[in-house]
Amino acid sequence: MKLTLGFSPCPNDTFMFDALVHNKIDTEGLEFEVVLSDVEQLNQWALKSKLDLTKLSFNAFRYCIKDYTLLDSGSALGRNCGPLLIKNLQTELTKESLIAIPGIYTTANLLLELAFPNFQNKKEVLFSEIEEKVLKNEVDAGLIIHENRFTYQDRGLEKVIDLGEFWEQKTSLPIPLGGIFIRGNFTTEIKKKVERVLKRSVEFAFSNPTSSSDYVKCNAQELDEKVIKSHIDLYVNEFSVSLGEEGRNAIQMLQDLHQNRIVD
Fold first, then answer.
1. What is the CATH class of 84-171?
2. Which residues of the chain fall short of a pLDDT of 50?
3. b/e burial code for range 66-81 (CB count within 10 A of at least 16 → b)
4. Inter-residue contact 166 to 133 (CB < 8 Å)
5. Is 161 helix (H, G, I), strand (E, B) or coil?
6. Residue 255 contacts by C-beta under 8 Å, 6 or more apart in sequence?
7. Are 36 and 7 in contact (CB under 8 A)?
8. What gap in Å lies between CA 69 and CA 148, rounded to an integer?
9. Architecture of the CATH domain 2-77+175-260
10. So what's the pLDDT on residue 262?
11. Which residue, 84, 99, 103, is CA-closest to 165?
């Protein structure tokens, strides 16, 4: 059986799914047609149920909850790994400031809404281009994710807020960024099989951390090995193997906070 599978070209995803993609594990007869794309593009496709399996921001999941089911393995949750709002040193932010965001449906944008509900002037920008937009003063601030977390200071930009720290201070839970979802029209048997294969791939990655190096490097935005390693160490952890009760509680809390606006 062949399934379409979408995930991002970022090191955490390519690290986790290299074994699955390159048949280094038992896939139990499943074949995968892989589509690598920016997370917001994947979010948009999920609204149209384009892919069988897909990485999806937990914010976007709210809009396609009837069409997709969250799987237990392959998610990105953690601590001290949230999106960062950055700006030039001389920039003063007001409620009219123009903020570059990596996508309306990203969890990063939802967290920004929770922390700064008055920031309504936003511009969608591909995540890898946000730093440059801020540097050129084309926007007043930028919401960065992925590898940019490790490079913005070297370019003379400063952090306004770490939205991961904001989240953890409010909830004491790991921050839920994105997960792997399967279209809901598959049988329970297929869903369980996919879940086993995903978990096997993540566990293989942990047991063989250098096996995915070529695949990770050929898709990474930043080629510096320290940046790549830091990225993987930050976003791939025990929650990637299995969400567990704490992970699922964090995801539910994100939905509750947005729905009820209970953040001070």
1. alpha beta
2. 262-264
3. eebebbbbbbbbbeeb
4. no
5. strand
6. 58, 62
7. yes
8. 30
9. 3-Layer(aba) Sandwich (3.40)
10. 45
11. 84
What pLDDT, in 10s, does the model give residues 41-86?
999 999 999 999 999 999 999 899 999 999 999 999 999 888 999 9
Which DSSP state fits 73?
S
Tokens matching residue 14: 């390519």
What pLDDT was estimated at residue 256? 87
Contact call for residues 71 and 182 (beta carbons, < 8 A): yes
- The torsion defined by the Cα of 264, 106, 164 and 126, in degrees rounded to 10, comes to -130
pTM: 0.91
For the chain, residues classed under CATH 3.40.190.10 are 2-77+175-260, 84-171
pLDDT, tens digit, for every residue of 12-31?
999 999 999 999 999 999 99
Instruction: Evaluate the CA torsion angle 251, 244, 72, 185 in order and state its sign.
Output: negative
Please report which helix (H) or strand (E) contains residue 194, including its range.
helix 188-207
User: Tokens representing 130?
Assistant: 């946000």
DSSP tag of 163: H
Task: Measure the CA–CA gap between 201 and 205, rounded to whole angstroms.
Answer: 6
Chain-centre distance for alpha carbon 133: 21
Tokens of 197: 């294969």
At 151 the pLDDT is 81
Q: For residues 83 and 164, is the Cβ–Cβ distance under 8 A?
A: yes
- Active site residues per annotation: 146
What angle (nearest 5°) sits at the alpha carbon of residue 224, between those of residues 218 and 227?
105
Tokens, residue 72: 């237990």
